[in-house]
Amino acid sequence: MQTGEISNGNGNGNGNHGALAWLAQYCGVIVSIGAFLSLIVSVTKATLVRPPALKLIFKQLYDIGVASVPVVGITGMSTGLVLAAQSFYQLSDKGLSSVTGLMVAKAMMTELGPVLTAFMVTGRVGAAMCAELGTMRVTEQIDALQTMAVNPNRYLIAPRFIAGTFMMPLLTIFGVFMGIYGGYLISVYFFNMAPASYFEPMPIHIKLFDLFIGIIKAFVFGIFIMTISCYKGINTQGGAAGVGKATTNSVVICYCCILIGNFLMTVGLNSVYEMLTGIFQ
Amino acid sequence: MIVIRDLYKKFGKLKVLEGLDLDVKSGETLVVLGRSGIGKSVLLKHIIGIMKPERGSIDIDGVRITDLEGPDLYKVVQNMGMLFQGAALFDSMNVEENTAFYLTQHGNRQTGKHYTKAEIADLVAHALEMVGLEGTQKKMPSDLSGGMRKRAGLARLIVYRPSIFLYDEPTTGLDPMTAMQINELIVKTQNELKGTSIVVTHDILSALYVGTRLALIADGKIVHIADPDTFMKIDDPTIAFLRKTIEQDPRTLKVEKTHA
What we know:
The complex is a heterodimer.
Chain A: H1 2-7, H2 13-49, H3 54-65, H4 69-91, H5 100-138, H6 141-147, H7 152-189, H8 195-199, H9 201-205, H10 208-234, H11 239-280
Helix pairs in contact in A: 2-7, 3-7, 4-5, 4-7, 5-7, 5-10, 5-11, 7-10, 10-11
Chain B: E1 2-11, E2 14-24, E3 29-33, H1 40-47, E4 55-60, E5 63-64, H2 70-77, E6 80-83, H3 95-106, H4 117-130, H5 146-158, E7 164-168, H6 176-193, E8 196-201, H7 204-210, E9 213-218, E10 221-226, H8 228-233, H9 237-248, H10 252-259
Parallel strand pairs in B: 3-8, 3-9, 6-7, 7-8
Antiparallel strand pairs in B: 1-2, 1-4, 4-5, 9-10
Helix pairs in contact in B: 3-4, 3-5, 4-5, 5-6, 7-10
């Protein structure tokens, strides 16, 4: 609304108009970030004051978690298959084929598992969630909730937020497992590797921290997906076209946040790990 | 008693309400008339607390709801109910679940007592019977016609017996017969539940049928308010147009009959 007010203002000359438009855009972004953070705070507050009904949480646990198992499984396994095949092709002539399993496991645990699972959940769950809430907004169903003294943050968003942040790490672990298993299948049954040589390097080179980093990332991605999708959905304006626009925006923003967040967490968490190992050694 | 004073609301540069004053007496059915987009629905959304004004106050039975937030606001809102223009039934729930929604969330409005499933089913069946939708419990909103959706929306209100009913364009988009059915239901609800009702519409015949007082909104303010007979005699171009509309509408006969 503030954006509209400023951009429609009567600027004195083209220069001023350009500056006002820029300022409006800049202010609009700040207002959106503020509204987004305010939504997170009010959802957290509503959840803590009076937690949502378990029935609602279980429904979301099923929709977000259980229903995503096939797509996450297929994604994890196909990634593991490709990763193992590429590793084998690239490394076998250098006598390093024995690290295939290690490469698959490490990549899946720390990077590909959390990121690809987050992408799948964004596409399958985040988009649907945004479209559902957006439709509820434009057809006044969210207003109807409020007129019946039901807080939409507690009734609609909190169960999704709780279920999403809980399910993302579990789905990621499943995706990683399927990736490693996929790598095992192609290495052993197609490239004739000994099963033991696929798994042998793993306990030596994979640390608990690698699993930890994947779970932390999945948890953060879960927060990104749920909050962004719900925020864009609940703030939808302008009918069916608005719902489509909000859904597209939410998916694009989620993907960007996941990729940027992944980079920052990889650098940040590894730096912290190195710092901590330096202190304790 | 609802007391609205000096209510201001704007969307961007568009000023919708500009110092609106309005008193709604307990037990009456006040109809707010006005052209589309003039701020009638916005007024209702302020009364029920969905929207906050830029300035001004709304007191409901002595409680200033414009100052309330969160649980305090919801406590007051629990006594109100609103029928939306498009009925706003929850798509993911069938008619029974929609109608039972308030009861499953809050239980009895006055005592707070939670109902058993059987009690809820009975109350829902009774509410649906009142609006002539018996046997539709398992139907989804998408399976209902526009008129049926409105009636299901009304059943969702009747079931918890709010003390204040707000109707947003209850007859808009309906054929004359269905519109008259909705009007009759509003009167029936008012007679049986004895609440305070505010009906927002641009349908003058509907207004004359259900209203005990009529108000005309223009330029963000209430410009005329009176009982139906006095209202229709006011010397105002909009009301003159409304008089002309009535003369040309075949439903007039039925309204005259009811008032007689």
